[in-house]
């Protein structure tokens, strides 16, 4: 069965489009390298930046290894706490990817659920959900995330804010991105609900939830996957922006945005590597994922075939 699946995949139009798109192949390779490095950071990182016993303040602010004052133990130099920049970037990308993927999944589940309900039920339920979506669309996603993060921090006890900051950040980014899923799924559901197979399911007495889950949902997931791929890059950038503004992950468990914020304080003193290298990693990660999303959108669009 696995062989048959691989054979069908290798002969599919999407795989053909992927093989003949240098941009997609390069983007996939870059994204795969960064993701594998982040996932297996404890195995591939030269040091553990979270192990305080291994940190030495005498090694702080060391330049990259090719600099005359560099140290061979730290290829990309160290930050203000003596942490190896390469290791910190790998661990930071791990947190950035975790926040990005979790927030996208949260947005996807919430948006798809509300879109299915809105498109299938219609009437007042559709009006209420879409008016809420219209109001949220009038504000930038970063402002929604900042508002949610601020409210959550105001409600949480001060001693629990750092330990719960990751979950608050995931919720804040996720709640700011559900609208595009809901609007896309609503439009597709309104088309699908009038087709013959849905009418036949109603005639045999099938309830709305099984109809949505078994019949309509599989037929509206194509555009959702494209949106999710592009939204992942946006979520990673949003997390970096919030962390750069100081309302994201605490410095003790830095993401890429936190590393850039820490390095920004030393940028004009000549310690450029503390900010530049995490910035390059963030750009490569977001750009590769975004280009993959653009390719997937074109590959799944029959009008561009």
UniProtKB/TrEMBL annotation:
The keyword Secreted does not apply. It is a multi-pass membrane protein. The keyword Cell membrane applies. Residues 93-293 form the ABC transmembrane type-1 domain. One of its GO terms (cellular component) is plasma membrane. Its main location: membrane. GO terms for biological process: transmembrane transport. CDD domains: TM_PBP2 (cd06261). This is ABC transporter permease. Belongs to the binding-protein-dependent transport system permease family. It comes from the Bacteria. The chain crosses the membrane at residues 24-45, 95-120, 132-152, 164-181, 216-237, 272-293. Keywords: Cell membrane, Membrane, Transmembrane, Transmembrane helix, Transport. It is found in: Cell membrane.
